[in-house]
Amino acid sequence: MKTTLFLLIALALALPALAGARPNIVLIVADDLGYGEPGCYGGKEIPTPNIDALARSGVRFTSGYVTAPFCAASRAALLTGRYQTRFGFEFNPIGAQNAALGVGLPAAEKTMAERLRDAGYATALVGKWHLGGTAPFNPQRRGFDEFFGFLHEGHYYVPPPWQGVTTFLRRKALPDSTAGGRWTSPDGRIIWSTHMGGNEPEYDADNPLLRGSQPVNEKDNLTDAFTREACDFINRHRSQPFFLDLAYNAVHSPMQGSDAYLARFAHISDIHRRIFAAMLAQMDDGVGRVLAALRENGLEDNTLVLFLSDNGGPTRELTSSNAPLRGEKGHLLEGGIRIPFVVSWKDHVPAGREDARMVSALDLYPTALAAAETPPVANLDGVNLLPHLAASDSEPFRPRHYWRVGPQAALREGDWKIYRPPAGKAWQLFHLTDDPGEAHDLAAAHPDRVAALEAAWKKLDAEMISPLWGSAGKGSQ
Q: Which of 14, 24, 50, 70 is the right S-S partner for 287, CB 3.0 to 4.6 Å?
């Protein structure tokens, strides 16, 4: 009798997804992935079967947005559920600025991880942080029980001397001192290109790979290492609710394609594009392994999976496609801010495609809290998507969306969007349903609409504060 009782207790403790248990939450963030690259968003050249399968299992939004057209500011809003301009995180810290005192996610902003940990969730960040490179901003001080990754904007995927990969780097000049074209090393392993007019940033300077706060010597390609660590976290925490933020640095530069993945794309003649394809395919395989870990642990049906990119793809830098959108990373045109965006949770989110309504990265924080049965937070800019998706209603998730990056600005309301370019010229007006590529400026034909949207932008802008640091870091790195 006692043996049977002990077996029943052990079985009960081992079951990861008891009826009525709060769901696990897995947030997968791709870095610099263009809207037009995944197969589920029209990409034809690079197969992404695992991202596509995730999209089929849930809702694929075709008007999914981030709040900034570059990494750090976008992530600040994602993890706080608030426009980053409310707390001064307007620009993108890069290079040494990452380690400057006071540069990072303000301590007063409570992250999604902090809320979920306080509600009894195990929490982990695996991958890129980019929300402060000094001790006060360490992810483990911002709600994450575990951290494996790096703190700055980018990192080489393998340690020097970069074995097993082909590396494509930006340079100002080639070995023969010319300033135009490409140079390839005799073994074909390193390509220098002057097409961007500058040198590859020193991504690894003062930016070690960390476990917690301690440097580690990682031999695997970072995409595989981050996948490995994510799966390990799932395996270790299968008996309790957990929040996993898997923040890949793929497909962000520096561009390094692994041999096995480059072989898949031998038919792509341009090595620049072939390396990008290899990096995306490797990340897609990682997504597949994470989803397999959920299945193998019996967690597939009780896990809310969220997938998005942190901004649009930098086309000139990576060859990335944002088709059919205009613009790229750094722009408040659609190509910089409209991104692949998927929400999947079996029996809670009906599978399908959402074309009519815009959704924001801001919405993932309140959606995650609601899924975790955690009290809502009053000062968030996002909305809980679950009631709308479960009811399959047609009510807008949000009436409008606001953007500001220095003089560059935008606001979308319904099908209409106003856009002010970086030079601070007059507002442009686009009807996004008819013209997603923003090819036709309708401002002259609809001055009253421009005035109304500008008034709405100004009302929201009046609630924001000035940047806490300068604009030097707002580039495409």
A: 50
